[in-house]
Amino acid sequence: MSEQDTFSEAEKAPESDAVLEVRGLSAGYGAVTVVRDLDISLRGGEVLAILGPNGAGKTTVMATLAGLLPRLDGEVLVGGKVLPSARPGAANKAGLVLVADDRALFTGLSVKENIQIAHKAGGPDLDATMELFPALKKRLKVSAGAISGGEQQMLAVARALVQRPRVLLIDEMSMGLAPVIVEELLPIVRRIADDTGAVVVLVEQHVHLALEVADEAMVIVHGDVRLTGSATNLAAHPERLEAAYLGETAPV
């Protein structure tokens, strides 16, 4: 199979319409390249699922997009403007917000305080945020370290939303959570994109659940994009997904 097997022939959005563009991105650590030649173009309200086995480079992509790691090559643009490399503050100011896989909560602060400390002018208020996460409404006065894993993940996403993201990066929303909780959380990703118009890039191990809420998907294996296409088409052809994960030639 070629390095990138393009499964969908759907037209890409014109560059002028793209909220997030990634052009020829290579990323890694020091002189070690982990991800090579990554291209993304997404309009507002679109959800991209980044899939792949452990160690494929998915978290490296997210950290690089967020400015936490320097780009080794390529460009990242939000709203047509190139972001400086390795400057997380500039990325956040441009509207790019990361929900990290460790959630990065202030565990000694209450749920309400975690949300308030992250709030940006123009972002949704507490009441609007609780409409998405009603389970948190009764936990506002409880410390973030004392709530359940599922509630902590809700809080991490809520804290991102009050920053008014143009691009929301969610790295492994399901980390450490029971499948039944993941089934409740992932549809919220779809609602966020639809209601706010934000681009959402989702790294997820629960492949089929991720494809249910995504518009587009890509499979990264050993740092290379092996398969891209619409989430609907990929979900309908699991044999191509399996082949991409295994590095085999996908059946026609």
TrEMBL record:
<comment type="similarity">
    <text>Belongs to the ABC transporter superfamily.</text>
</comment>
<dbReference type="InterPro" id="IPR003593">
    <property type="entry name" value="AAA+_ATPase"/>
</dbReference>
<dbReference type="InterPro" id="IPR052156">
    <property type="entry name" value="BCAA_Transport_ATP-bd_LivF"/>
</dbReference>
<keyword id="KW-0813">Transport</keyword>
<keyword id="KW-0029">Amino-acid transport</keyword>
<dbReference type="InterPro" id="IPR027417">
    <property type="entry name" value="P-loop_NTPase"/>
</dbReference>
<keyword id="KW-0067">ATP-binding</keyword>
<keyword id="KW-0547">Nucleotide-binding</keyword>
<dbReference type="GO" id="GO:0005524">
    <property type="term" value="F:ATP binding"/>
</dbReference>
<dbReference type="InterPro" id="IPR003439">
    <property type="entry name" value="ABC_transporter-like_ATP-bd"/>
</dbReference>
<dbReference type="InterPro" id="IPR017871">
    <property type="entry name" value="ABC_transporter-like_CS"/>
</dbReference>
<feature type="domain" description="ABC transporter">
    <location>
        <begin position="20"/>
        <end position="247"/>
    </location>
</feature>
<protein>
    <submittedName>
        <fullName>ABC transporter ATP-binding protein</fullName>
    </submittedName>
</protein>
<dbReference type="Pfam" id="PF00005">
    <property type="entry name" value="ABC_tran"/>
</dbReference>
